[in-house]
Each structure stands twice: as C-alpha cells, then as structure tokens.
Amino acid sequence: MNRIDRKVLADQLAPELKRVERRLLLRSGLSLGALTMLTGCNLSDGDAVDRALFAMSRFNDRVQGWLFDANRLAPTFAASEITDPFPFNAYYPEDNTPEVDGDTWKLEVSGLVQDKTPWTLSKLRAMPQASQITRHICIEGWSAIGEWSGVPFRSFLERIGADTRAQYVGFKCADRYYSSIDMATALHPQTILATDFRGAPLPDKYGFPVKLRVPTKLGFKNPKHITAIYVTNDYLGGWWEDQGYNWFSGS
Ligand SMILES: Nc1nc2c(c(=O)[nH]1)N[C@H]1C(S)=C(S)[C@@H](COP(=O)(O)O)O[C@H]1N2
Ligand SMILES: [Mo]
Question: Which residue's CA lies nearest to atom 18 of ligand 1?
C-alpha cells in the first residue's frame, strides 16, 4: 500500500477504530497501545491502518477471549521456562524494599468477615498449599514467568468467613502500596496468597512475607508485603488505580 492509499484507508477506518478502542477501554481499561504491548505486537508507531487492521482481525477472536473471561485459567508453564533472574518492580528502587520481620508480622483481617483474628505466617503455612508457574505481566512493558506457592485465596476467604457476596477485597501493604480486586477474581482458582517463590520463602524484594498472586490480572494488581486484608462493598481503588490505571486491569 502506498502512503496515499493508507491515508484514505485510515480515514475510512477511523470510526471503526474509535469504536473498537472505546469498547476495549470500557471493558478492560487497556488502550489499544497497552493491548498491543501485552500481546507482544509492536504497533507503537501509532500507524492508524496497522492499528485498525490489528483491532479488527485480532481483537475479536484471539485477544478478547483470554483477556476478558473471568473464569478462564491463565496459562501455566514448565519449570524450565521460569525467568531467571525474575525482575523486581515497585514504585521505589530495589534498595528501598521494606524489611518485614516474619516473626512479628501479623496479617490483619477486617470488614465483612466473621473471624477477624490476625494471622501469623506459620498459621498461613499450615493451610493447604497450592503452586503455580504463571506469567506476570507489568503494564510498564515487561513480562516474566515465575513460580509462586501459598494458600488458595478462596480457601483463605472461606476460612475467615468472608461474605463472598461482597464486591471487593482490599489490601494494605508494608510500604505505602494498596490495591483492591473484584470478588470474582478473589475467588478465582489461581488467585493465591503466596508465601513462597520458587519453592523458598518469598525474598524481600518479591514481597516477603506474603503477596497476592493473581495471574489473571496485570502485575500492579498483585500487592506485595501485605499487612491487611478487608472485604467490603466500598470501592477502594489502589496505588496505580488512583493515578489513572484502570481498576479491572485483566491480563
Ligand atoms: N507493596 C507493593 N506491591 C506491589 C508494587 C509495589 O510497589 N508495592 N508494585 C506492583 C507492580 S507495578 C508490579 S509489576 C509487581 C512487581 O513484582 P515483582 O517485584 O515480584 O516483580 O508488584 C506489584 N505489587
Ligand atoms: Mo507493574
């Protein structure tokens, strides 16, 4: 296609592209740019034709399926595919990682739950455990495969007598981070309260003593160094969510 043809086509496609982009944003909060990044396609030059063709040919069949189905399982991987070293990310540099004392650490539980007794690390470790090798996708443009183990979050919520009809579960962290997720995601079989990374206690930088591992969400919806969990019907937002990142942010 020469440049003129592309320009004509771009003009013709513009309304459709706007419609697709708008639907994408409404449903996932991802811009088409973010989506192309997540799917490994580089359309960042902003070429309207490429973007429109991508949107129409790929959006409907492939991407939409895994991006928006809340019950769908995130892909799992073999141990040989684990990214080593696994990247660190936070809103601060790695030297500022909070150092939490695992012996005195307590996990507070509040809101719409029957049993508000704080949890210790050993009590969490005594619960039935699950493991997963999944891909973590950060909206900043990288992804990596890691292995996390811990308590399936659904069993934790059942154990504390959480009202699973409530809309949200919120998290406070040992740094100033906070986040919240929808109840359907909290109950998803792959959402775990992870205490281990690659078969050993979570290293400090990856969220010691506990992080929420949510492979169906973008990385920023995986709070590390959790200190408090609450079940609520009030919208809670989150660190990045309150700075304009979409709250749902499925991956
Ligand atoms: N407490 C806390 N949790 C956090 C963050 C943070 O800054 N503080 N950053 C989030 C973001 S944006 C990402 S990509 C992942 C990075 O996790 P990792 O260091 O294990 O790769 O943690 C998420 N959870
Ligand atoms: Mo991230």
Answer: 88
Residues 60 and 84 in one domain: no
Q: For residue 73, is it within any domain?
A: no
Is residue 235 located within the same domain as residue 123?
yes
Which of 67, 95, 118 marks a domain boundary? 67
Atom of ligand 1 nearest to the CA of 174: 1
- Interhelix angle 48-58/3-28, nearest 10 degrees: 50
Helix (H, G, I), strand (E, B), or coil: what is residue 9? helix
Ligand 1 neighbourhood includes 197 CB (under 6 angstroms)? no
Q: Which of 102, 99, 81, 73 is nearest to 195 (CA)?
A: 102
List the end-to-end C-alpha distance of the chain, in Å, as a whole number.
34
Residues 140, 197, single domain; the answer is yes
- Give the separation between CA 173 and CA 209, rounded to whole angstroms: 11
Of 19, 47, 67, which marks where a domain is finished?
67
Q: Residue 248: inside a domain, yes or no?
A: no
The closest ligand to the CA of 178 turns out to be: 1
What's the predicted TM-score (pTM) here? 0.78
The response to whether residue 178 sits with its C-beta less than 6 Å from ligand 1 reads no
What's the structural domain count of the chain? 2
For ligand 2, a single-atom ion, which residues have Cβ within 5 Å?
Answer: 138, 219-220
The residue whose CA has the least distance to atom 15 of ligand 1 is 219
Q: Which domain holds residue 16?
A: 3-67
Can you give the CATH number for the domain in which 122 is found? Answer: 3.90.420.10
- Residue-wise pLDDT for 60-97, tens only, equals 434 444 444 566 788 999 999 999 999 999 999 999 99
Judge residue 180's burial from the number of C-beta atoms within 10 Å of its C-beta, 0-12 exposed, 13-18 middle, 19 or more buried.
buried
Task: Return the best residue to mutate from 107, 177, 193, 240 for the ligand 1 pocket (most ligand atoms within 8 A of CB).
Answer: 177
